[in-house]
Amino acid sequence: MSSVIGGAVDSAGNDVVAREFNERTRLLYGGNEENSSDSDGRPQFYTHTHTGSSSSTSKNNTAVTERETDPAIDSGSDDEHSDVDPDEAHSRLNEEYRGLPWTHRPSSIVLVIIFSLFAIGQSMVTASNLDVMFELICRSLYDAAPSRSLQIPIDAQEPPEFGADPRCRGPEVAALVANFTSYRTAILGILGIVATPKLASYSDRIGRKYIILWCSFCGMFADIIPFLCTSYPQYFDYRWLLVSSAIQGIGGSLMTVQVLNSSYVADCIPPSLRAKSLAMLDSCLFGSIAIGPVIGSLILSTYRSLPKLYMVSIGFYVTNIVLTALFLVESRPLKARRMSQVQYDTDLEQVMSNATNWQQYLHKVNFLKPLALLKFDHLSDRASRRNARMLVIMASLGMEFAIAISPIIMMIAELKFKWTGVEVGYLISVFGMSRVFVLAIIFPLALRFLRSKFRVVGNGLDKVDLTMIRIGQLISIFGYSALGNAPNPKVFAIVLIIDSLAGVQIPSMKNAIIKHAPQDRIGELLGALSLVNNFSMVVGPLVFFRIFNLTVATRPQTVFEIVSLGFFCLLITSFFLSKPSPPPSPDEPHNYGSTEQPTADL
Asked: Where is this chain compositionally biased, Polar residues type (predicted)?
């Protein structure tokens, strides 16, 4: 399998592949100079000059000179052009958009607006999906096939359509719903593990916008099926909901869209400003999760109809698709997409040249292949590779802790304080809005303050990101420990709101990882990271629920103390991160006015 992933070739084969790579690059971009390769067979710099034919180029009547570098060998080069501000170097990806009006440039603000429609449309029906499964399975079990859509009765005089049969909340139906829910979750998780890295890799080669549109269509069709099930239950039974989960798994999940959004931001935002935009995306996600259920409850209380709720959700998706098609500008220019395709073809030829038929088949079906990118072998500096790998481990474990403990928080609130679903729903909304306030307001202010004190590095870990990560981990240690020992509901709610401050580590961690990624494979790297997170979503809840079941009768706060200990270990791990050597050149993105030089340790 290592031969399938790594694609080991001999030095002679490397030279052949390098020459083919340079030739393809020259043909694609019209290069007139002969490219060379280093001793490792990797293509070196190439330069080409062409006269633009677009309106903006003809208007300026100038020749545009572009210089492309291989990220794996750019660091440490002695070339006179190697000491370039990484923000300016990264802006070359968007060079063809210079001179165009702002409506034709990639915009993270437009992306946030469009993504909010997607997230609201999906979160507003989350609470109702469980009720739909209960009702449809109950009707199938007791052979009660209705001829009308599922309605919510306003009073006892109305026909008993939805939720009126007490058998639908009995233990027999609940057991069937639990099994069916596990099937849907398994389908969604397995397909998400396979599809998300593939879609992220495709977005590097064909563009972010097309894959975002694909995800929007998948989300819309995933909601059309429950709409049909609730509108025509005599024709569409509960088994059709498995098809809905499958469609959502191949592209319509929030995690998949968030990976693509992060890739879009990485394309069009300089490294020194990227963390702020990533925080806006996360705040948009949490805000939509808080607002969506409220909108869904208002629709149900007004119309008393589940089909109408799904119609409104589909309307959000349609609006999202229209706005994406009309106003979202592709963040990866054509030349960047072609370079990613050339690199992909070259890597594929390296693997296939010395592989047997069986190995070639395994390479095609191997969905774990993106994990090879998380080794960060393209980084020449040993300290940078170690930092990147440690950051991936820290991000994955932190995500696993947060996902696993979330349902246990709600269960503790109901068991310890005798809360109902209404109070828990209010708590979720308050926590979501608190996280929005933290990421949209507090995080940018803290980022601005830290950038005035520390130097910002565009191609590696810096003190700004590391400080935000450590602050978030400290808050998590306190928050989860206090949640388990909260004496009353007020303290429990206040601690949970304070714990929302820990969200500052999410965009900082993601930004630090992106800085270590090759610029032509950012989407693929985020897809690989999502693959790890999907595995964590499967394993983490099983482990922590098992611990909770063993300790709930004697010491229910044990699971919170374990999570707090886990974040303490992550905090200790962060002190083993080191400054890459050699330090970045003085021409890299600098803080605003500070003259502090980078230190040897962080």
From this structure: 592-602
Domain co-membership, 324 together with 339: no
pTM > 0.90: yes or no: no
Domain containing residue 251: 108-331
Most confident stretch, 82-96, 121-135, 422-436, 497-511: 497-511
Please tell me whether residues 92 and 158 are part of one structural domain: no
Higher pLDDT, 186 or 264: 264
In the prediction, which pLDDT does 117 show?
A: 93
- Whichever domain contains 509, its CATH number is 1.20.1250.20
Taking only the tens place, the pLDDT of each residue in 45-86 is 333 333 333 334 344 433 333 333 333 323 333 333 333 344
Separation CA 268–CA 246 (nearest Å) = 32
What is the SS3 assignment for 46?
strand
| Tens-place pLDDT, residues 363-382 | 667 777 778 888 898 888 88
Same domain, 196 and 281: yes
| Predicted local distance difference test score (pLDDT) of residue 113 | 92
Q: Which two tokens stand for residue 225?
A: 């099926």
pLDDT at 421: 55
Cα separation values, 597 from 75, 452, 464, Å: 19, 13, 14
Position 104: which residue type?
A: H
Two structure tokens written together for 177: 């719903």
486/433 same-domain check: yes
Task: Give Cβ neighbours of residue 252 (< 8 Å, ≥ 6 apart).
Answer: 122, 215, 216, 218, 219, 220, 221, 222
Greatest Cα-to-Cα distance within the chain, rounded to the nearest angstrom: 84
Phi, psi of 576 (to 5 degrees): -95, 0
Q: Give the mean pLDDT of 466-488.
A: 92
User: In this structure, are 417 and 546 located in the same domain?
Assistant: yes
Determine contact, residues 590/271, Cβ cutoff 8 Å.
no
State which of 315, 348, 381 marks the end of a domain. Answer: 348
The Cα 68–Cα 520 span in angstroms is 11
Give the integer Cα–Cα distance in Å for 507 and 468.
9
Contacts of 494 (CB under 8 A, 6+ apart): none
**pLDDT recorded at residue 218:** 94
Look at residues 317, 321, 336, 360 and name the one whose alpha carbon lies nearest to residue 224: 317
> Any bridge partners for residue 48, and if so which?
66
Cα gap 9→28, rounded to integer Å: 25
Listed in sequence order, the residues at least 6 apart from 186 whose beta carbon sits closer than 8 Å to its beta carbon are none
Residue 31's SS3 state is coil
Domain identity same for 466 and 405: yes
Same domain, 387 and 428: yes
Identify whether residues 388 and 339 lie together within a single domain: no
Query: Is 121 inside any structural domain?
Result: yes
Number of separate domains in the chain: 3
